[in-house]
């Protein structure tokens, strides 16, 4: 056997069965979990939802940073091999300081402004975000970077996350809030809308009912999963055994209602444990 074969055998045989840690303020990050579980079915996933402190969208950077650090510590104690911050608000507010201190791969979620700016034919893009993302310096710098020949309209959406958490997406209140938040984007005649919060993909059909099916809607689950896969491969962290990966769900404030919301969003019954 020559050296080249020896090397490729080593790479192929290498497997890392440690879990991937994923978290959000609540159930929103499950939109990312669903994509990861589908694309990387061998991987064991541990999801933490910080319900006791949700939503993050009306909190300060200091508060969000504190929560991110506490949750990262809990997940690292569970021997995770990579961390996915499945939350735009937590990413823009706290990822930089976390990356300076933690050596495992950290994958964040940032609104898909760049692909939207490239895609938009009329160069007018709308972006739905939480209040804490809308005012964040890192987010505003990202918008500025991609606004050279594109108009980006930022629309904060207070109240939507709470309704999704309560499983109230079919309510009159949810429809009315969506109308209020989408109207300015329709008035500006954008042709592309970015979902800049991981909760919002769960409102996709409601959004389409209002704006129709001709407008492009972008979320970040697929690119985040792709980046996670790239990092796992690069660092030889993939779970190569053909076992079905497990999904464990934890909440800082579990309840029967939240467990039902999680089950509905994931598409099968799940058990929610306390962390
Ligand atoms: N799902 C989160 C995000 O992507 C957090 C929303 C919130 O807690 O306000 O921003």
SSE sequence, one letter per element: HEHEHEHEHEHHEHHEHEHEHE
CATH T-level fold name of the largest domain:
Rossmann fold
Distance between the termini: 50 Å
Oligomer: single chain
Mean pLDDT: 94
Number of helices: 12
Cα-based radius of gyration, to the nearest Å: 19 Å
Q: Structural class given helices, strands, pairing?
A: alpha/beta
Helix content: 40-55%
Shape: globular
Read across the widest sheet, the strand sequence of neighbours is 4-3-1-2-9-10
Class of the largest domain in CATH? Alpha Beta
| Major sheet characteristics | 6 strands, parallel
CATH architecture of the largest domain: 3-Layer(aba) Sandwich
Bound molecules: D-glutamic acid
Uncertain runs with pLDDT below 50, 5 residues or more? 1-11
Any idea how many domains? Answer: 2
State which percent range the strand residues make up: 15-25%
Say how many strands there are: 10
Quick overview of this protein structure:
46% of the residues lie in helices and 16% in strands.
Description:
By secondary structure, this protein is α/β, with parallel strands linked by helices. It has two domains: 20-109 and 222-274, Rossmann fold; 113-219, 3-Layer(aba) Sandwich (Rossmann fold), CATH 3.40.50. It is built from twelve helices and ten strands. It has helices at 3-13, 30-39, 61-77, 88-101, 113-119, 131-134, 137-145, 160-165, 172-187, 204-211, 221-234, 256-266; strands spanning 20-24, 45-49, 82-85, 106-108, 124-129, 151-156, 192-195, 216-218, 247-251, 272-274. The strands form two sheets. A six-stranded parallel sheet has the order 4-3-1-2-9-10, sandwiched between helices. A four-stranded parallel sheet has the order 6-5-7-8, sandwiched between helices. Helix 2 (30-39) packs across helix 11 (221-234), helix 3 crosses helix 4 and helix 9 (172-187) packs across helix 10 (204-211). It is globular. Residues 1-11 have low confidence and may be disordered. D-glutamic acid binds at residues 24-25, 28, 54-57, 87-89, 130, 133, 161, 197-199.
